[in-house]
Prior knowledge:
The chain is built from eight helices and eight strands; from the N terminus they run βαβαβαβαβαβαβαβα. With 258 residues, the chain is an alpha/beta fold.
Amino acid sequence: NMLKPSFFNRQSTAVTLLCRPGDPEEALAFARNARDDGADAVAFELIDYAAERRTTEDFRTIVAGSPLPTMFCCYRNDTVYGADDEARMAMLFRCAEAGAEVIDVPGDLYAPADFELTEDPAAIARQREAIAKAHALGAKVVMSSHVPTAARTADEVVAHLRAQEARGADMVKLVAPANTSEEFAESVRTLSRLNAEMKTPWVYLNSGRYGRLQRFMGPSFGCAVAFAVHEHLPGVPFDQHPTIASLRRAMAAIAWRE
Length: 258
C-alpha cells in the first residue's frame, strides 16, 4: 500500500508552499501550483482569507481538492480576527474538522509573551486542551513561535522546542533571526543538536541576513518542514522564503545529510 502523502512519517524534509489565499479557488490554485513545482505539502496562512468564507464547508472544499497534505495557520496579524486568540483558534478547529492534516497553535496562545512562548500555567493548560481538541477532530498540531528580533543560542532553542513538545504538540517550530556570522554559526550548531537530540519532528528557521542560507541547509540536518513560495511577489515581505524551484535545486546540489 502506498502511504498517503503526509507531513509525518517521512524520510525527508516536507518542501511546503506557504501561501495566503483569499478563498477556496485561490487556495486550490496555489496547491496545484505547489504540486507542479515539486512541493510535498502546502501551508495556508489564513490572515487574508475572506471573513464570510471562514466556514467548515469552505475549508472542506480546500482539503478535499488539494493534491497535497494541508497545514493551516493564522497569527495575530490576521485581517479579520486580529489578536482575538479564541476566534482564530475556533477557525482553525473548523479547518481540523474539515480534514486538515495540521493546524498551528502558537506557543503564546491565550497569553502573549516574550519569544512567543507563554509560561502562564492557565494559558498552558488551555493550550493543552486546544491540542487535545485538535487531536479529537483528527488533526495534528504544530506549535510555533516567531521571534523577530532576538537571536537564540542552541541551548535556548532546544529548551524552547522541548517546552513546546511537553505541551503535546506533534511538531515544534521556532523562527529566530541570524544577522551576524556568529549567529549563523550558532544556528548551524543548533541544527546539528536538534538533529541529534529531538524525537518530535522539529522546524528551526532563521530570518534576517543569514535566513535564506540557513533555510537551504535545514533539510540536510533533518528539519521537518522547509517553507517556500511559488514566486516572489512585489510588496510581500517573504524575502526569507526561497521559491520551491530554488529550494529543490539547492537540496539536490547539497545532497548531504548529517
